Description:
Distance between the termini: 103 Å
Strand order of the largest sheet: 2-1-3-7
Number of strands: 7
Structural class: alpha+beta
CATH architecture of the largest domain: Orthogonal Bundle
Number of domains: 2
Amino acid sequence: MEKKSEHSKSPAKSPAKIPAHLWFIVTILACIAVQVVMVKIYGIKHVPIKAGYYEPMPDFETGKNDTARERLLWLESQLAPPPLLVWSDNTLPLLEYRAILPDDAEEQANNSISASFMDIPSSIPDTDLESLSSGQVIEVTAFYARELPDLRTVEANERKVIFISTVLPHILRANQELLERRSRIKIDYANDNTDRIRKWAELYGIKNAKDQNVDQLYDELMSRVDAIPVSLALAQAIVESGWGTSRFARQGNALFGEWAWSESKGIKPLSPSNDRAVVRSFVSIFDSVRSYMHNLNTHNAYKNLRIERQKYREGDQNILTQRLIPTLDKYAQDGDIYIRKLKNIVRTNNLQIYDNAVLARNN
């Protein structure tokens, strides 16, 4: 009987192939693992915070700081609770406006029949707005979005229109609130309501408000409780958020790069200059805008801005912005460069046309 050769073997079996859908699942799990690691290492996350926008100066005693903040929120509730906005569910905001010639502004204000609005679709470049004079009043339809859409992959001109369309109504409403508060303070002062004047002073960061003369407190409040020029606010939002594309703007509605001093209140930068500092996160765009304005109106670093604003507040708003920009040298570490950036942003994007913008009466 013929024997089989020792070298005669059955064919080797090939390894089983992994199905394509399993590779897909493995890839997804790997991506999730990488994201978890990034969150743990770099703190890349959205940080929800309490309602309100007051952030006391850092004393690095969390309990004491939180108590001070709660006191400010209580004062606000007693004096002038913040406005409640109706949030829009639309995903693509469009800026709606109508231009009102200065000579016709009073007549339009008394006219209950609204003229038709002109829509600016997101594909129209900014240069099409340059036909509007900076002296014209632009009536803006309120569009309140909680947060910006993701603008990183949007074409530049379209990104600009969407960003301004989204942020502008919030700036106008926050300024409206400040002017309403200013009027209330004037009434309280005229009625000799000393207690309310002292509360207003405490809310707006005036030290030793209980011990100061009421007349002095009123004068200081008139310096602090006032609107921020629209073109200035837009320019700072653009620079600080990169037209809404920064991680802080996308994940925390942080349009103005404000700092907070507790990790529970913001997003930690990848290379922070201060171990305790985070870029403050907000529950909405509106909270971010109000916080920014409150910061300019109360922080000692912007005292010169308030002085210049009070001195020239009755003049041309476009000129006012140019006067105020140089007072913001302490807003960023690269002070002089930052000032040049703001001036360039206002000029190249024709932001001065929004200085006379107002919210439509039905908003």
